Amino acid sequence: xxxxxxxxxxxxxxxxxxxxxxxxxxxxxxxxxxxxxxxxxxxxxxxxxxxxxxxxxxxxxxxxxxxxxxxxxxxxxxxxxxxxxxxxxxxxxxxxxxxxxxxxxxxxxxxxxxxxxxxxxxxxxxxxxxxxxxxxxxxxxxxxxxxxxxxxxxxxxxxxxxxxxxxxxxxxxxxxxxxxxxxxxxxxxxxxxxxxxxxxxxxxxxxxxxxxxxxxxxxxxxxxxxxxxxxxxxxxxxxxxxxxxxx
Length: 247
Hints:
Order of helices and strands: EHEHEHEHHEHHEHEHEH
CATH topology: TIM Barrel
Helix content: 40-55%
Largest sheet: 8 strands, parallel
Distance between the termini: 13 Å
Strand content: 5-15%
Number of helices: 10
Strand order of the largest sheet: 7-6-5-4-3-2-1-8
CATH class: Alpha Beta
Number of domains: 1
CATH architecture: Alpha-Beta Barrel
Number of strands: 8
Shape: globular
């Protein structure tokens, strides 16, 4: 049985004060221990989050990593550095990275290799735009993103896939449970053909305006194993409710 996972992507939000307040509330909250929980703050707040979460059940991850281990890459952070700091997780291929930083599938594949080599657990994001969905291209887009990121890898233990329809990220729109399940089932079928992946054991997360009010219906679907949560992850009460819905 796949253990539910709920990860909070804090994006470019936070201050030392707000991180302390948010994590303090989460650490004091009653989150079911059957759910794996992680938070992904900005680079500058990782050390603080790791210190506060030390010894707790809350894992800490980064929102991205470099494809390179070291070198003249100003502004980049290597996966080995994140692992050395104590991070467990790293988000890769988020649609905002793809759109705003022109990240290609081949670059994401290289980042995935670096993350796995460093011992980090990657959360690989895939998803289509509204135009692509309306054109009936959702499955083709997701399949291409999976193939581009995963082909050629032989070591993919611990891989997590997050399906995040771009049209539902930060818009208030959410895929219906049925729409989300259809794509999650499609992703699991695609993974069955990827060398080095146990499709049945791979956790698939939904992301895209997940809230306490819709989490339960989403998690009730057969192939949805949790969520990658954006805005609601910045509100302790909401994030706790989503985590408990996953239980």
